[in-house]
Specification:
Layout (H helix, E strand, L loop, with lengths): L2 E9 L5 H16 L5 E9 L7 E8 L6 H8 L3 H9 L2 E14 L8 E8 L5 H17 L4 E11 L5 E7 L8 H6 L3 H8 L3 E14 L5
Antiparallel strand pairs: 1-3, 1-4, 2-3, 2-8, 4-6, 5-7, 5-8, 6-7
Length: about 220
Protein backbone atom coordinates (compact mmCIF):
# COMPACT_ATOMS: atom_id res chain seq x y z
CA UNK A 1 0.00 0.00 0.00
CA UNK A 2 1.20 3.51 -0.82
CA UNK A 3 1.36 5.85 2.15
CA UNK A 4 0.13 9.32 1.41
CA UNK A 5 -1.98 12.28 2.36
CA UNK A 6 -5.19 13.97 1.30
CA UNK A 7 -4.67 17.74 1.35
CA UNK A 8 -7.78 19.93 1.22
CA UNK A 9 -7.80 23.73 1.16
CA UNK A 10 -11.16 25.42 1.69
CA UNK A 11 -12.72 28.78 2.32
CA UNK A 12 -16.24 29.24 3.71
CA UNK A 13 -18.37 32.02 2.32
CA UNK A 14 -18.69 35.16 4.47
CA UNK A 15 -21.26 34.62 7.19
CA UNK A 16 -21.07 30.82 6.87
CA UNK A 17 -18.02 30.23 9.07
CA UNK A 18 -19.85 28.81 12.10
CA UNK A 19 -21.93 26.42 10.01
CA UNK A 20 -18.81 25.36 8.08
CA UNK A 21 -16.82 24.51 11.22
CA UNK A 22 -19.68 22.73 12.92
CA UNK A 23 -20.25 20.58 9.83
CA UNK A 24 -16.55 19.80 9.38
CA UNK A 25 -15.86 19.00 13.04
CA UNK A 26 -19.02 17.04 13.84
CA UNK A 27 -19.93 15.37 10.52
CA UNK A 28 -17.44 15.55 7.66
CA UNK A 29 -14.12 14.62 9.26
CA UNK A 30 -15.55 12.08 11.78
CA UNK A 31 -17.29 10.19 8.95
CA UNK A 32 -13.96 9.68 7.19
CA UNK A 33 -12.31 8.35 10.33
CA UNK A 34 -14.40 5.19 9.99
CA UNK A 35 -12.85 4.23 6.65
CA UNK A 36 -10.04 1.65 6.86
CA UNK A 37 -6.73 3.17 5.83
CA UNK A 38 -7.58 6.73 6.89
CA UNK A 39 -5.66 7.08 10.13
CA UNK A 40 -5.58 10.70 11.26
CA UNK A 41 -7.04 14.01 10.15
CA UNK A 42 -5.96 17.46 11.24
CA UNK A 43 -7.46 20.87 10.56
CA UNK A 44 -5.42 24.06 10.43
CA UNK A 45 -6.20 27.77 10.08
CA UNK A 46 -4.11 30.12 7.95
CA UNK A 47 -1.45 32.08 9.83
CA UNK A 48 -0.14 33.99 6.82
CA UNK A 49 -3.11 36.15 5.89
CA UNK A 50 -3.62 34.29 2.63
CA UNK A 51 -6.71 32.59 1.27
CA UNK A 52 -8.01 29.96 1.34
CA UNK A 53 -7.95 30.16 5.10
CA UNK A 54 -8.41 26.51 6.10
CA UNK A 55 -6.46 23.32 5.49
CA UNK A 56 -7.33 19.72 6.32
CA UNK A 57 -4.75 16.95 6.03
CA UNK A 58 -5.58 13.25 6.18
CA UNK A 59 -2.77 10.74 6.77
CA UNK A 60 -3.80 7.59 4.92
CA UNK A 61 -3.08 4.73 2.58
CA UNK A 62 -3.84 6.12 -0.86
CA UNK A 63 -5.81 2.99 -1.69
CA UNK A 64 -8.42 4.09 0.88
CA UNK A 65 -9.52 6.82 -1.53
CA UNK A 66 -10.42 4.15 -4.12
CA UNK A 67 -12.54 1.94 -1.87
CA UNK A 68 -16.26 1.49 -2.34
CA UNK A 69 -16.83 2.75 1.21
CA UNK A 70 -15.08 6.03 0.48
CA UNK A 71 -16.77 6.44 -2.92
CA UNK A 72 -20.16 5.85 -1.33
CA UNK A 73 -19.45 8.42 1.37
CA UNK A 74 -18.82 11.04 -1.32
CA UNK A 75 -21.71 9.95 -3.54
CA UNK A 76 -24.31 9.77 -0.77
CA UNK A 77 -23.70 13.13 0.85
CA UNK A 78 -26.11 14.39 3.47
CA UNK A 79 -28.32 17.34 2.64
CA UNK A 80 -26.34 19.36 5.14
CA UNK A 81 -23.07 18.51 3.43
CA UNK A 82 -24.42 19.35 0.00
CA UNK A 83 -25.62 22.70 1.28
CA UNK A 84 -22.30 23.56 2.93
CA UNK A 85 -20.25 22.55 -0.12
CA UNK A 86 -22.43 24.72 -2.31
CA UNK A 87 -21.49 27.79 -0.24
CA UNK A 88 -17.70 27.30 -0.25
CA UNK A 89 -15.83 29.98 -2.14
CA UNK A 90 -12.82 27.65 -2.49
CA UNK A 91 -12.41 23.88 -2.42
CA UNK A 92 -8.98 22.63 -3.53
CA UNK A 93 -8.55 18.89 -3.03
CA UNK A 94 -5.25 17.10 -3.76
CA UNK A 95 -3.74 13.72 -2.92
CA UNK A 96 -0.05 13.05 -2.45
CA UNK A 97 2.20 10.01 -2.20
CA UNK A 98 4.83 10.10 0.55
CA UNK A 99 8.43 10.21 -0.67
CA UNK A 100 10.48 10.73 2.50
CA UNK A 101 9.92 11.40 6.20
CA UNK A 102 12.65 13.05 8.28
CA UNK A 103 12.92 14.29 11.83
CA UNK A 104 10.97 13.73 15.01
CA UNK A 105 7.38 12.53 15.09
CA UNK A 106 5.88 14.17 18.17
CA UNK A 107 2.88 12.71 20.04
CA UNK A 108 0.93 15.97 19.80
CA UNK A 109 0.08 17.79 16.56
CA UNK A 110 2.55 20.47 15.56
CA UNK A 111 1.34 23.94 16.58
CA UNK A 112 2.61 25.38 13.28
CA UNK A 113 3.04 23.82 9.87
CA UNK A 114 4.54 25.19 6.68
CA UNK A 115 3.44 23.72 3.34
CA UNK A 116 5.82 24.45 0.46
CA UNK A 117 4.79 23.14 -2.95
CA UNK A 118 6.97 23.53 -6.04
CA UNK A 119 7.33 22.32 -9.58
CA UNK A 120 10.59 22.08 -11.51
CA UNK A 121 11.22 20.76 -15.03
CA UNK A 122 11.16 16.96 -15.20
CA UNK A 123 14.84 16.75 -16.02
CA UNK A 124 15.62 18.80 -12.89
CA UNK A 125 13.64 16.70 -10.40
CA UNK A 126 16.67 14.59 -9.43
CA UNK A 127 18.57 17.77 -8.55
CA UNK A 128 15.63 19.00 -6.48
CA UNK A 129 15.67 15.76 -4.51
CA UNK A 130 19.45 15.97 -4.01
CA UNK A 131 19.13 19.50 -2.65
CA UNK A 132 16.38 18.56 -0.23
CA UNK A 133 18.07 15.41 1.05
CA UNK A 134 21.67 16.62 1.17
CA UNK A 135 21.30 20.27 2.21
CA UNK A 136 17.89 21.75 2.85
CA UNK A 137 16.35 19.14 5.14
CA UNK A 138 19.48 18.72 7.31
CA UNK A 139 19.83 22.49 7.73
CA UNK A 140 16.18 23.00 8.64
CA UNK A 141 16.16 20.12 11.13
CA UNK A 142 19.15 21.78 12.83
CA UNK A 143 16.92 24.83 13.41
CA UNK A 144 15.50 25.07 16.96
CA UNK A 145 11.80 24.22 16.88
CA UNK A 146 11.90 22.52 13.47
CA UNK A 147 10.76 18.96 14.20
CA UNK A 148 9.77 17.09 11.08
CA UNK A 149 9.75 17.33 7.27
CA UNK A 150 7.78 15.07 4.96
CA UNK A 151 8.09 15.24 1.18
CA UNK A 152 5.32 14.19 -1.20
CA UNK A 153 4.55 13.95 -4.89
CA UNK A 154 1.08 14.92 -6.09
CA UNK A 155 -1.04 12.10 -7.49
CA UNK A 156 -4.38 13.86 -8.06
CA UNK A 157 -5.65 17.42 -8.12
CA UNK A 158 -4.11 20.67 -9.30
CA UNK A 159 -1.12 22.61 -8.08
CA UNK A 160 2.67 22.15 -7.93
CA UNK A 161 4.04 18.62 -8.24
CA UNK A 162 6.10 18.36 -5.05
CA UNK A 163 5.03 19.22 -1.51
CA UNK A 164 7.17 19.57 1.61
CA UNK A 165 5.20 19.63 4.87
CA UNK A 166 7.16 21.08 7.77
CA UNK A 167 6.17 20.71 11.44
CA UNK A 168 7.33 23.43 13.86
CA UNK A 169 6.85 24.25 17.50
CA UNK A 170 5.98 27.81 16.50
CA UNK A 171 6.78 30.77 14.26
CA UNK A 172 9.75 31.77 16.43
CA UNK A 173 11.81 29.30 14.37
CA UNK A 174 11.72 31.78 11.48
CA UNK A 175 13.69 34.32 13.53
CA UNK A 176 16.69 32.06 14.21
CA UNK A 177 20.12 32.27 12.63
CA UNK A 178 19.83 28.59 11.64
CA UNK A 179 16.70 29.33 9.58
CA UNK A 180 18.37 32.28 7.87
CA UNK A 181 21.30 30.02 6.99
CA UNK A 182 19.05 27.26 5.64
CA UNK A 183 17.16 29.65 3.38
CA UNK A 184 20.15 31.59 2.06
CA UNK A 185 22.50 29.20 0.26
CA UNK A 186 23.81 29.19 -3.31
CA UNK A 187 22.26 25.79 -3.96
CA UNK A 188 18.83 26.99 -2.82
CA UNK A 189 19.12 30.04 -5.09
CA UNK A 190 19.91 27.74 -8.01
CA UNK A 191 16.92 25.52 -7.25
CA UNK A 192 14.55 28.46 -7.22
CA UNK A 193 15.87 29.71 -10.53
CA UNK A 194 14.51 26.46 -12.01
CA UNK A 195 11.19 26.54 -10.16
CA UNK A 196 8.19 26.97 -12.47
CA UNK A 197 5.45 26.90 -9.79
CA UNK A 198 5.58 27.64 -6.08
CA UNK A 199 3.15 27.92 -3.17
CA UNK A 200 4.18 28.61 0.43
CA UNK A 201 1.59 28.59 3.20
CA UNK A 202 1.80 28.75 7.00
CA UNK A 203 -0.95 27.37 9.24
CA UNK A 204 -1.66 26.88 12.93
CA UNK A 205 -3.30 23.80 14.44
CA UNK A 206 -7.07 23.77 14.99
CA UNK A 207 -8.34 20.23 15.65
CA UNK A 208 -7.36 16.56 15.32
CA UNK A 209 -9.45 13.47 14.53
CA UNK A 210 -8.44 9.82 14.96
CA UNK A 211 -9.41 6.58 13.27
CA UNK A 212 -12.40 4.92 14.83
CA UNK A 213 -13.41 1.29 14.90
CA UNK A 214 -15.68 0.06 12.14
CA UNK A 215 -18.50 -2.45 12.50
Amino acid sequence: MAEGMLFVLSEPAPGQESAFHDWYDTEHAPARMGIPGIRTARRYRAADGQAPGWLATYDLDLEALETEQYRRLRAERSERERAILATLSTLDRRSYELLTDHGQRTPEPAPTIVAVAITVPTDYETELTRWYEQEHIPLLLATPGWNRIRRYRRTTGAGPVFLALHELTGPEAFATEEYRTATNTPWRSEIFQHTTEMERRTFTFHKEFHQRATT
